[in-house]
Description:
- This protein is of the alpha/beta class.
- 39% of the residues lie in helices and 14% in strands.
- The chain folds into two domains: 5-47 and 291-390, Aspartate Aminotransferase, domain 1, CATH 3.90.1150.10; 49-289, 3-Layer(aba) Sandwich (Aspartate Aminotransferase, domain 2), CATH 3.40.640.10.
- The protein contains twelve helices and 13 strands.
- The strands form three sheets. A seven-stranded mixed sheet has the order 2-8-7-6-5-3-4, sandwiched between helices. The protein has a four-stranded antiparallel sheet with strand order 9-10-13-12. Strands 1-11 form a two-stranded parallel ribbon.
- The radius of gyration is 21 Å and the shape is globular.
- The model has no long low-confidence stretch (mean pLDDT 97).
- It binds pyridoxal-5'-phosphate.
- Pyridoxal-5'-phosphate is lined by residues 41, 105-107, 130, 171, 175, 203, 205, 234, 236-237, 242, 247.
Amino acid sequence: MKLNGNYKNLEESYLFSTIAHKVNAYAQAHPQANILRLGIGDVTLPLAPAVIAAMQQAVTEMGKKETFRGYGPEQGYAFLRESIQSYYARRGVSLAADEIFISDGAKSDLGNILDLFDVENTVLIPDPVYPVYVDTNVMAGRRIVFADATAENGFLPMPDEGVKADIVYICSPNNPTGAAYSRGQLAAWVEYARKNGAVILYDAAYECFVCEEGLARSIYEVEGAEECAVEFCSFSKIAGFTGTRCGYTVVPNALAGGALNKMWLRRQTTKFNGVPYIVQRGAAAVFTPEGEKQIAENLAVYRRNAKRLSDCLDGLGIRYTGGKNSPYVWLRCPGFDDSWKFFDFLLEEANVVGTPGCGFGKNGQGYFRLTALGGEDATAEAVERLKKLLGK
Ligand SMILES: *Cc1c(COP(=O)(O)O)cnc(C)c1O
């Protein structure tokens, strides 16, 4: 037996373990400290009542002989695929139900989709970005080139004809920078992909936070994208499903002459068991009028948090991106070139925890991510402490 040697090429991910270690050490040494955690990108509000009611109803069905369900379709029940289809249709994007695949989350699909592509492909990944794209390709042994996301390009790298890539990752609104592409900017990426015969893997996990006109919530808002892009989305951020687990991936029939859709169906029916019926019922409730109303209230809380954080940085004259169409605020560390030094400073002087930008790629050095997905009171208190600590 030979091991997959590519795993040796993975860089140890110390980011969240180091944060936890530092915060625990500080808390032990200062038991009185009220530490405010704006570090991890997890949601904090509970599931909406409409989601809970739908799941309770589904539990009852599972307990009755007449309505019990066993193995379901691996690609998801029609009721959920159709409600996602109409969610897109309300935004002017027309999809066929068989182009939508339900899964246990965007992270799984982003990793699993790589089964469909040859190892000889070159992948283009923005830096900084969500670490999953890099690690899944390192595990497979693919060549990776990076697209620099910097203050100069507003953390939105644009295609470079001199760089040839076969698989292009785009995450918009971006984790960690909060930057979001406009439709026009995405059109340039679609043009690049079509010209070069590349595929775009578009991560729309934060689409529900987009509120500005002209910014895209789906890559399929761009003409021709259905011929070159796969879109990944999730119930994690829109509806707090990080622990409940449900996501979906759109693989258009127009992509690679329909081959990719067929291959993904084959891959999922062979290797994936589908998402529990109960969870899919909960997910479908997200797109009912009642569910949408309740979820809008939750998202409004996170948006208010984001506004508080960005107003605070505006007041302090600190440069940042995000905060408007994203639950993340990405700031230039004031007075520090090293993200970890700023992390220690904030933890020690204000008892506020954020995420060092260098953990997301080399261009993140000197930057820092704060999340708006925390509690309202904690965010308001964190803002007061930041003002006091960083105000001149
Ligand atoms: C949170 C997040 C996801 C969603 O992942 P799930 O596996 O569905 O919870 C996907 N992409 C990015 C960039 C994220 O931050």
